[in-house]
């Protein structure tokens, strides 16, 4: 046990002291902060100067209150002057001409705009188009005799509320399904990222020490299995350290970014609401509030511990396999690609399977992927927010723990021989012989 702790300590400290680790740990949160600064600038940018647009509306389609688009750096003014005169008027940068709307039943309406400077970009054009469509809709309704109150009553929000067949069972909001999809996607993606990143880190560490022949000195005082487990646990602690630092730094950097650069979340929300294709701001605020409430309503006392268990199980299982591959490759590290394919393939399949599972969390595919040990570390965390049956969680954990024990034993059998063999690449057949070879 003492030797295992020494390997873990060596593996941990040699990595956290590396400049690459320090730079990646510090620059990643700073990069996220820079990303939000750039996004805030883009979403609130309206141009260096205001552009004045004249509107010719002979049929008074827009009414007295000219409401087309906002937040686009454009200001509009209705005028009764002739088009030829407006083209020469230096007060205006562009002219928008609305022709009379003769046939109310027609679904086509062509509006012309005149500009020599090309000031109207695609985003602004789409925003103007949407504003004109709303005004034309209102104008047609008024011509047909509809009142404003009648028009507003046509807008109906349909919501689905889930009711249980068992009256004694607690009710669950339908919005929880959408929230669970987001939570599941984030958790599943993190598991995929962690397994690949830190698993490959173990592989590179093993193959580098074998190539440099440092391992020959180490195995003289430490058993190969202890050396392998020390690397796996040490690299895992490095990953947890990095994630913990990010969890502390990212919120602090976001707050500092908001204070220094004066980023107003409400202004950004209003700006995003005015972008083409965006919905009503009030509706967006209600959706956000519902989403926050559903996140708080999740059973985090169950989700977080299970997430940690699946993370540790998936990491140890796949890292042990990566360590076995690292010990089996020769001096050419490129040889590991063919050996890592059987390990990487289940991870990729589980990642893409995760998207199908969060769309249908109660399907047979979701149940199978949540129990199968090579898929469950990625799929089950993505499914926890959907409250899967307790028996599936228990069965999945039992199978995962037994699989971790088996794959660690299997990797240890390969590692003990492969780490001291040089000169050639091991084939799958030869690796199979190592597993059953007696000490």
Uncertain residue segments: 169-173, 270-281
For the largest beta sheet, what order do the strands appear in spatially? 2-1-3-4
Order of helices and strands: HHEEHEEHHHHHHHHHHHHH
What multimeric state do the chains show?
A: single chain
Mean pLDDT, to the nearest integer, reads: 75
Major beta-sheet overview: 4 strands, mixed
Roughly what fraction of the amino acids lie in strands? under 5%
Q: Roughly what percent helix? A: 55-70%
Which descriptor suits the 3D outline?
elongated
The number of helical runs is 16
Query: What's the number of structural domains?
Result: 2
Describe this structure in words.
- The chain has 439 residues and is mainly α.
- The chain has two domains: 2-40 and 173-436, no CATH class; 51-151, D-Maltodextrin-Binding Protein, domain 2, CATH 3.40.190.
- Helix content is 66%, strand content 5%.
- The protein is built from 16 helices and four strands.
- The chain has helices at 2-16, 19-44, 83-88, 122-144, 148-154, 175-211, 214-218, 224-261, 265-273, 281-297, 300-328, 336-359, 364-371, 376-383, 390-418, 428-436, and strands at 51-57, 74-78, 94-98, 112-114.
- A four-stranded mixed beta sheet has the order 2-1-3-4.
- Helix 1 (2-16) packs parallel to helix 8 (224-261), helix 12 (336-359) runs parallel beside helix 14 (376-383) and helix 15 (390-418) crosses helix 16 (428-436).
- The longest helix has 38 residues, at 224-261.
- It is elongated and about 95 Å long.
- It starts with a helix and ends with a helix.
- Residues 169-173 and 270-281 have low confidence and may be disordered.
């Amino acid at each position: 046990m003492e030797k295992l702790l020494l390997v873990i300590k060596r593996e941990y400290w040699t990595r956290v002291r590396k400049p690459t680790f320090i730079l990646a740990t510090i620059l990643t949160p700073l990069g996220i902060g820079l990303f939000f600064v750039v996004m805030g600038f883009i979403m609130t940018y309206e141009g260096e100067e205001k552009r004045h647009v004249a509107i010719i509306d002979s049929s008074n389609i827009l009414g007295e209150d000219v409401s087309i688009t906002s937040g686009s750096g454009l200001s509009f003014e209705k005028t009764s002057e002739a088009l030829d005169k407006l083209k020469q008027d230096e007060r205006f940068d562009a002219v928008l001409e609305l022709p009379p709307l003769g046939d109310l039943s027609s679904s086509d309406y062509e509006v012309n705009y005149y500009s020599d400077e090309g000031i109207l970009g695609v985003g602004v054009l789409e925003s103007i188009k949407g504003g004109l469509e709303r005004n034309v809709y209102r104008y047609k309704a008024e011509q047909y005799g509809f009142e404003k109150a009648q028009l507003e009553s046509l807008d109906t929000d349909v919501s689905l509320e889930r009711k249980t067949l068992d009256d004694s069972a607690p009710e669950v909001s339908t919005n929880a399904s959408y929230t669970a999809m987001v939570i599941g996607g984030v958790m599943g993606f993190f598991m995929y990222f962690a397994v690949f990143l830190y698993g490959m880190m173990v592989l590179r560490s093993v193959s580098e020490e074998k190539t440099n022949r440092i391992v020959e000195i180490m195995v003289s005082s430490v058993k190969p299995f202890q050396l392998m487990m020390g690397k796996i646990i040490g690299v895992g602690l490095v990953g947890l350290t990095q994630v913990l630092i990010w969890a502390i730094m990212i919120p602090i950097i976001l707050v500092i970014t908001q204070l220094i650069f004066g980023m107003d979340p409400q202004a950004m929300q209003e700006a995003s609401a005015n972008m083409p294709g965006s919905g009503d701001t009030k509706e967006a605020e209600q959706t956000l509030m519902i989403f926050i409430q559903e996140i708080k309503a999740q059973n985090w006392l169950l989700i977080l511990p299970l997430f940690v268990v699946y993370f540790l199980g998936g990491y140890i299982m796949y890292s042990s396999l990566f360590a076995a591959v690292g010990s089996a490759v020769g001096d050419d590290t490129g040889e590991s690609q063919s050996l890592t394919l059987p390990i990487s393939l289940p991870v990729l399949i589980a990642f893409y399977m995760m998207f199908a599972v969060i769309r249908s969390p109660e399907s047979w595919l979701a149940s199978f992927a949540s129990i199968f040990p090579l898929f469950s570390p990625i799929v089950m965390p993505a499914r926890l927010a959907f409250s899967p049956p307790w028996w599936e969680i228990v069965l999945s954990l039992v199978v995962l723990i037994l699989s971790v024990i088996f794959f660690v034993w299997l990797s240890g059998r390969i590692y003990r021989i492969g780490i001291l063999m040089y000169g050639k690449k091991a084939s799958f057949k030869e690796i199979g012989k190592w597993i059953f070879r007696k000490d």
